[in-house]
Amino acid sequence: MRKILLLLGLVLASPACLSDADCREDCQCQQRGLCGAAGNTCKATKDEHCRASQTCKLWGNCVAREGKCVAGADEDCRASSACKSSGRCRVNGGRCGR
Predict the structure, then answer these.
(1) What's the rounded mean pLDDT across residues 17-35?
(2) Stated pTM of the model
(3) How many angstroms separate the CA atoms of 69 and 77, rounded?
(4) Which parts of the chain are beta strand (E)?
(5) What pairing do the DSSP bridges indicate for beta strands 36-38 and 41-43?
(6) Looking at residue 5, what is its pLDDT?
């Protein structure tokens, strides 16, 4: 009986599996491009998610790589607020830098 209760507790305590729809509804989708489900977390799974996000507009992080939005092209950096406000207009190690 104790083993059954332990297993039941583990099942109930496990996080629910997320779907892409769950991730798209989360604010992290619009803000950081984390719009695709990957296991039990939301990650950047498509460039289009990143391009539509605030992180692209503000920081030039418009390309999905390894679950995150990163800077992938100088053009994205040049179009960002970071370029206009602080001269961070070139890709440097996945970020917009000087």
Answers:
(1) 90
(2) 0.78
(3) 13
(4) 36-38, 41-43, 63-65, 68-70, 90-92, 95-97
(5) antiparallel
(6) 36
